[in-house]
Specification:
Elements: E1 3-7, E2 14-18, H1 24-27, E3 33-38, H2 39-44, H3 46-51, E4 57-60, H4 69-82, E5 90-95, H5 97-109, E6 116-120, H6 123-129, E7 134-139, E8 142-149, E9 154-157, H7 167-184, H8 186-200, H9 206-224, H10 239-248, H11 255-272, H12 278-285, H13 295-299, H14 303-310, E10 322-326, E11 332-336, H15 340-355
Parallel strand pairs: 2-9, 3-4, 3-5, 5-6, 6-9
Antiparallel strand pairs: 1-2, 7-8, 10-11
The structure holds nicotinamide-adenine-dinucleotide (NAD).
């Protein structure tokens, strides 16, 4: 099977392969294997159930309220331990970012590290979250508050999982693809813009190319700064407002769609602060704003609720709001001490324009 990428990590190098789920058993050296899978994926993809014959499977309902320490400790760890796992075992995770975060976290704390393999089944997980080592759990109303860095030993991207995603979940993945292309360069963004209708409407064969590009662009950041101490922080472009929007709507907006809103607000904020020429902000926003599908839900969010959620962001410094802003394509930077009124104005202008 062709190896797409090889990622250097403090935990060792791991490969990303492009291929099918079938044949997963030959890729894993451990004799003892367990599987933890998204219940919906098992329902929609009988080939996975057939392929896991004789392997104990824990089915997980992939909803944000399950992405907790309690679920990891009280459900995932007992499943692994009750099936006799040792450090020589491997846990196979099959699902999107929620299953990835839960399994990655549980495996990182058990035996100070239990090997796991990951088969991402959402576009967001295939094009973005599957690499980078992060595991995150929600805690005390805070999104992704607890976490570790613990990459899988193997990673296989199988695009045959994607056709069963709902449009909303599929478009959520496109949001992260747009983000990484804006971070990369004007040229990369232009190429994506030319193909964006085809990607958005799931034209066969096109999305695979953008999964590969997105992972290739992300690889540079995570290898330079696996622990998120400097260069990698700009990957949070769109996430400061995006995470707040997810929290303020009780996760009613999927992650990558919230990131699209966050990008639009970050660009507008950057223009208001004089970092970014207005026409460039408008051009960059052309990738996201015409495609924002959830205006009715987002329009109901008050700027007070949004700012209250933003104040809880772990990346703020000394009580000051930190937002990843931009000076243009490929020129994202941390903006420290963003005035709440600038966020209010950027958000209100955007909603007014979108609902006009
Ligand atoms: N660890 C990281 O680096 C990282 C990065 C980005 C996002 N995340 C986290 O990932 C989560 C979002 O993950 P996601 O967008 O991948 O999706 P998800 O895991 O939240 O799943 C979304 C929905 O899609 C369903 N689903 C999954 N695969 C499917 C398939 N092939 N066909 C049909 N339905 C399918 C799920 O059952 C669920 O209903 C958030 O919690 C976010 O915080 C983590």
């Amino acid at each position: 099977m062709p190896e797409l990428l090889s990622i250097q990590s403090a935990r060792g190098t791991y490969g990303v392969e492009l291929g099918g789920f079938d044949g997963w058993r030959e890729r894993i050296a451990s004799k003892h294997v367990l599987a933890i899978a998204d219940a919906r994926v098992l329902e929609l993809h009988p080939r996975v159930v057939a392929g896991l014959k004789d392997v104990p499977i824990l089915k997980v309902e992939a909803v944000e309220p399950n992405k907790t320490l309690a679920f990891a400790v009280d459900t995932i760890l007992p499943f692994i331990l009750d099936h006799g796992a040792t450090r020589a075992s491997t846990v196979v995770a099959i699902g999107g970012g929620i299953v990835q975060d839960l399994v990655g976290f549980a495996c990182s704390i058990l035996f100070r590290g239990l090997p796991w393999a990951f088969y991402p089944t959402t576009l967001l997980a295939q094009a973005d979250s599957c690499i980078g080592s992060k595991t995150s759990l929600n805690h005390l109303k805070y999104k992704n508050l607890l976490g570790t860095f613990f990459p899988p030993k193997q990673l296989v991207v199988d695009a045959a999982f994607l056709p069963t995603l709902t449009d909303l979940d599929y478009h959520s993945g496109v949001g992260e693809i747009i983000k990484i292309h804006l971070l990369e360069s004007e040229q990369a963004t232009r190429e994506l813009a030319a193909d964006l209708d085809a990607v958005w409407s799931r034209t066969p064969g096109v999305v695979e190319r953008y999964i590969t590009r997105s992972l290739t662009y992300k690889k540079r950041y995570i290898e330079r700064d696996e622990y998120d101490e400097g260069p990698r922080l700009v990957l949070n472009y769109g996430h400061c407002v995006g995470h707040a929007l997810e929290a303020a709507t009780d996760y009613g907006i999927p992650h990558g769609i919230a990131v699209m809103y966050g990008i639009a607000v970050a660009n507008r904020m950057s223009a208001k602060r004089g970092l970014l020429p207005e026409p460039v902000a408008r051009a960059m926003n052309q990738l996201v704003e015409p495609r924002l599908p959830l205006v009715p839900i987002a329009a109901k969010v008050s700027t007070d609720a949004l700012l209250a959620a933003m104040r809880k962001d772990k990346k703020n410094i000394d009580g000051k709001l930190v937002v990843i802003g931009t000076e243009g394509y490929g020129a994202m930077k941390r903006v420290i001490d963003v005035a709440p009124d600038v966020i209010r104005a950027a958000w209100t202008d955007m909603i007014e324009e979108l609902t006009r």
